[in-house]
Every structure is written in structure tokens, then in C-alpha cells.
Amino acid sequence: MDCATKEAAVSWKASQGVLSYAVSALSEQQDTAACVSTGPGCTLSNLRCGRTYRVQVLALDNICSSLPSRAAMLTTEPCQPNITAAVLDCYTDSALLDWTHSEGAVSYATTARAANGDAVTCTTNSTNCELAPLECGQTYTVTTVASNPVCDSDASASVQLDSVPCAPTAVVTEQDCAANTALVSWQPGAGADSYLVQAFGVEEHEVSCESGAAARSCLLPGLQCGFTYNITVLAVNSECNVSESAVTVLHAAPCVPSVVLAYLDCQTDAVSVAWEASKGAVSYTTVAQGNGGYSVLCNSSGSTCQFASLPCGLSYNVTVAALGVACSSAESAVAQIDTGNSRAAPQPGREALRRLTGQRVFFVLTH
Question: Are 123 and 107 in contact (CB under 8 A)?
Fold first, then answer.
């Protein structure tokens, strides 16, 4: 059997007194083929794929024909398979292939080839197999060939298979603390059609943004003050959205301090300031700005601060800002206090004043 031409050469020992020979081939499916020769050999053509033929030779002269020779069995090449499905598994970087049964096939070999030269093959005696592992970001051309002990079939018609996109890398965030936004940028992953940036807060707040394949950044809006976010970038194509970058941690700006109370101790001329703790704050900066241009700065790790010996006779506007890991909050609402008239100053309750004791306090005086 010549697998390339799909023809079979038949030969025999010559007989005495013969003018010609007639060769016939008959399959179990009643397919026939024949050839005639004056010598001890001829070629059978138009053979059907996936058949086993019984081949016999008759010797002829002008008057009679001989009895048929003993039959020889001829097996042709398997029929061409047809791929019916190629399903990508996004989580395992593999693909499951199905194809039609080929008459005459004993086994099958399926090959996927990418433009970068990567090739993946699976062999089986059934009509499906798994191709693994596939490289990310590649488009594979997939074909299946059926085989038997005599020949390989023609390759099936090819199908195109896109693997999972490669995960983005080098994720960087640039935070706008005042606007509560963050610009997220990355190095793209091969094979991505678009990108999805997700920010998950540790307290279940979530924000996201999307961009096209050509973009390398997008803006996350609406970050909540005091939240810590885990940021990932997903590369997405028509098949998969599981190619995820490494996690980048982002600390949003701390919340603005609230309920700021200022109290003057008339005996010591010290002003104590207290406020509600701010979510996300690491430390605080308290500023007392006098109406004569005099200002005092107090840094504290807790939610109280004390100014010692403020110059008397001035009215002060007191504000507090929270400092976080990456940002500072806006200033709090102003609390006013007059060192010339302590009774006019806002008075915190007893419980608020008790919180003022036992705090670590630092002072910086500026003019």
C-alpha cells in the first residue's frame, strides 16, 4: 500500500500460457477495485479509506480463465478524522479535543502548534484527548491524524485555539489622596483582549475599573477613607478571565478626625485637644493657629494632644489631620479657643477630658 498515492501494487508469480491477468479487490462493504496487466503485476487505484479488501488474481488466455488465486488481504489508510470540539480549561492551561471516529483507525495523534514554535501532542485510541500544558498568550493550530499499522490518514481540517492570556506583571499604584482615587498601571500579558482591575477592601468594600488591550493603566475611583485594599489586575480574552497578577496592597487616606474638642486649663495655661480616632490613622498632627500669626504644632500617636503655655490674649483655631501609611487626611473642622477667656471656650464633657491623660505627646513650636 502506497500511503501517499493511496494506491496498492499487486504482484504474483507468472503462469505458463497466459496472455493477461485480471486483479479484483472486494471489501466487506462491497467496495470494488480492479486492474488488468499482461505481466505479473498491476496497481489498484480508487481504493476507499478505512477498508480491508480481499485481492485475487485471474490468469487469462484466448479461451479460458484460471480459478482465482488464493486471496490476499489489503488494508487501506484510515479515513480523515474531523475535529468537532476544542474546549479550553482556563484553570489548568489545557484543552479537551473531540473528533469523529475514523473508519480503519487504530489510534489517533492530536497536535497543537503555536506561532512561537511550541508544540503539544496527545495520543489515544479513543476519540478525545487532553492537550497540556499550553503556553499562555498563544494561538494554537490543532489537527488530528488517524493511524493504523499500514498508514496514517490525512490530517483533519485545522481548528484555532487561544490559550489563557498571560498574567500582567509589575503592578504599580499612584494614589491621589485628596480625590480618593488610585491610578493602577502594569506590564501587559500576551494574549489579553482587555484588563480588569479589582480592589478588595479588608472590610468588603470593592471598586474596579477596566481597560482595553492597548492600555496599561486605569483609574480606581471612590476609595473609602481608612480602608486597606488588595489590588489585582486580570488579563481577559474571549475564553478566560483567570490570569491574575500578584496582589498589590494599597492604603487609602485616613478618615478626617471628627468631634474635635479644645479645653483651656486656667491654672497652667495649657490647652488640651481631643478628638474621635480616625480609621486608618497611624498618627496625628494638631495645629493651633493664633489670630496674631502665632502657630503651634503638636504631633501625637493617640487621639489627644496638649499645648503648654500658649500666649494669652489670643484666639486660636485648632485643627487636626490624620497621617496614614501613604496619605494624610484633610484637616478636621475648626475648634476655637480663646486663651483670654477660658469660660468662652468649648468645654468637653468629663469623659472626654479623662481621655486626655496618659497619652504620649510631642511639641513643635513655630513662628
Answer: yes
Whether the CB-CB separation of 27 and 103 falls below 8 Å is answered with no
CA pair distance 190, 165, nearest whole angstrom: 6
Q: How do residues 143-178 score in pLDDT, each as one tens digit?
A: 999 999 999 999 999 999 999 999 999 999 999 999
Q: Look up the domain containing 90 and give its range.
A: 83-162
Residue 286: all three cell numbers together = 494638631
Cα(56)–Cα(25) distance, integer angstroms: 7
Q: What would the pLDDT profile of 56-85 be if each residue is shown by its tens digit?
A: 999 998 888 899 999 999 999 999 999 999
What is residue 354's DSSP assignment? H
Could you tell me if residue 340 is inside a domain? yes
My answer on whether 131 and 34 are in the same domain is no
pTM: 0.75
Amino acid at 168: P
- Taking phi over 0 as left and psi of -120 to 50 as alpha, with beta for the rest, 117 belongs to left
DSSP code of 65? Answer: B
> What does the pLDDT look like over 319-343, one tens digit per residue?
999 999 999 999 999 999 887 654 4
For 72, 85, 110, 212, 218, the CA distances from 81, given in Å and listed in that order, are 27, 12, 10, 39, 47
Alpha carbon distance 300, 167 (integer Å)? 43
CATH number assigned to the domain comprising residue 36: 2.60.40.10
Distance CA 210, CA 93 (A): 24
Instruction: Say whether 119 sits in a helix, a strand or coil.
Output: strand
Contact between 133 and 120 (Cβ < 8 Å): yes
From residue 38, give the alpha-carbon distance in Å to each of 23, 26, 364, 365: 11, 21, 119, 122
142 touches 81 (CB < 8 A) = no
Cβ atoms of residues 277 and 304 within 8 Å = no
> What three-state secondary structure class fits 24?
strand
